[in-house]
Amino acid sequence: MDKVNAIHTPVYLRLIYTYTMYTIMEGIYICYAEQQYIWPYSADGSHLQLDIFKSQLPASVASLQDDPYRSLAAILRKAGGYTKVRR
């Protein structure tokens, strides 16, 4: 774009939260946990810190342990168990 023909429009931003006090990995971990993109809990339901969480991640998706409740929920969803009934 030509500098002569460039249009400058002011843009106002509001900083909601900053992760600058963390390392990049810590910031990503905290952000993903807040957005519920990851589930940083052990099999017994206790919360896992970043270093423990990273050490327990499998190398591939194929080596993930089966969660019987999630498997049951997936089977139920595929069978239409979660569809809403119109009245």
Order of helices and strands: HHH
Principal-axis shape equals extended
User: Could you tell me the number of beta strands?
Assistant: 0
Beta-strand content estimate: under 5%
Tally of separate helices: 3
Structural class by sheet pairing and helices = mainly alpha
Biggest sheet features: none
Radius of gyration, CA atoms, in whole angstroms: 22 Å
- Residues in helix, %: 25-40%
In round numbers, the mean pLDDT is: 85
Which helices and strands, and how do they pair?
Blueprint: H1 24-34, H2 50-56, H3 68-78
Describe this entry's structure for a reader:
This protein is mostly helical. The chain has three helices and no strands. It is extended and about 60 Å long. The termini are far apart.
A few lines on this structure:
By secondary structure, the protein is mainly α. It has three helices and no strands.
Looking at this protein, list some descriptive labels.
0% strand, single chain, mainly alpha, 87 residues, 3 helices
